[in-house]
Structures are given as C-alpha cells and as structure tokens.
Hints:
Radius of gyration: 17 Å
Number of strands: 7
CATH superfamily: P-loop containing nucleotide triphosphate hydrolases
CATH architecture: 3-Layer(aba) Sandwich
InterPro entries: P-loop_NTPase
Low-confidence stretches: none
Protein name: ParA family protein
Distance between the termini: 12 Å
CATH topology: Rossmann fold
Amino acid sequence: MMPATPLYIICSPRPQVGKTLLARLLAEFLLLKNGNVTAFDVNLKEPSLLDYLPKVTETADVIDTYGKMQLMDRVIVDDGLAKVIDLGFHAFDEFFKMTDEIGLLKEAARRHVAPMILFVADTDRVSARAHEMLRQQIPRVNLIIVDNEFIIRGELPPAMAGGRLFRLPALPGFLKTYIDRLNFSFTGYLRQEKDSSTELHQWIRRNYLAFRELELSLILQRS
C-alpha cells in the first residue's frame, strides 16, 4: 500500500530524448501492477502518449490559466491512483514556472500526494540550464535524472551525475523501431514471448524492476 498517491512528471526541455518512451513504459508498468493508471499527454507532435495508450491517457495543456488549473485539479488529489504526466518540451518552462508559483511540492504534501520529477538528461546547454532551474526548485529526493543511454552515449554531465539516477538502457536500432509501433505493448510482449532470454524481454523486465525500486524508495522516504 502506497503511503501517498504517486505523481510522476516526465520532462525535458529537448525533443527526441526518449521522454514519451519512458512515459509509456512507466504507465504500462503501473497498469500491470495496480490495474489502473491515469496519464496526461502535454505534447504537440504525434505520435504521443495518447496514440500509444488511448484508454488511460487524456490530453492536457498549460498554455492558459484554465488549462493549468484543470491539470492541477486532476493530479493533486490523494485518490490512490498513480498519475503520469508526459510533459512536452514546448511546455517545460511554463509548467515549472506554474509549479513554482503555486508551491506544488508543499501543496502536494498537504494533500498526501508524492510528486517525482523524472528529468531526461541531455548534454546541451538548454538541458543544463533546465536542470539547474529544477535543482533549485525541486528537493533532491523528488528529482530523478534519467540517463537514457540511447541519447547519452558517454558519461552524464557532472552536474547531473550527483543526484538520484534512473538508467534507461539503450536498445539496438531494429528493436527501437519495433517498439515504436503504435500497437506495441511492453506488457503484452512479456506475456506473449515465451523466451525470457530475448534482449527485449530482459530490457522490459529490467525497466519494470527499476520502476518498482523507485516506488519502494517513495515508500521508504515517507515512512
């Protein structure tokens, strides 16, 4: 039993860094483990999370006050249902400006909601500035740096390497193309593929186990 309702915010100020892939993986893991999840797609381009998981995903925007308040009203609620926000790069600055203004972390704690910000790292200046902004705004325990090895081919920038890390192993190009199909399901593959030694089977299981560790850390930090 989770001590608070988890809220996962997956973000990057850069496009094409694997953010929606991570959101898909996490949403499918939560759906498998809990039987339900609600995901919010804040993206401009297709394919997006809504295209992959239409049954559990709804669109959201943060371009005006109404959209921002609608989203916050849905995610800052202790109903035991895990929430996942796939935050498009175009909305990064506006979203975190809003969360700083409303005091998201304090309000979430008051309402028994546990936000976790999963920042997908990159080596460019835009990512460096965005990470520094988050580091000043978000407590270390709530900020997780995602090292997508398909994007970061070497070491993480030193400023990002010292915090909490989530490593997303790289897949060969042909498998990346395979999982990018709109009708592909990670959980469906685990159930249908009898050979558990395949690279994709092990990759999915490794990531699901890593998500479980993330959940356990949430339980421990709030116990």
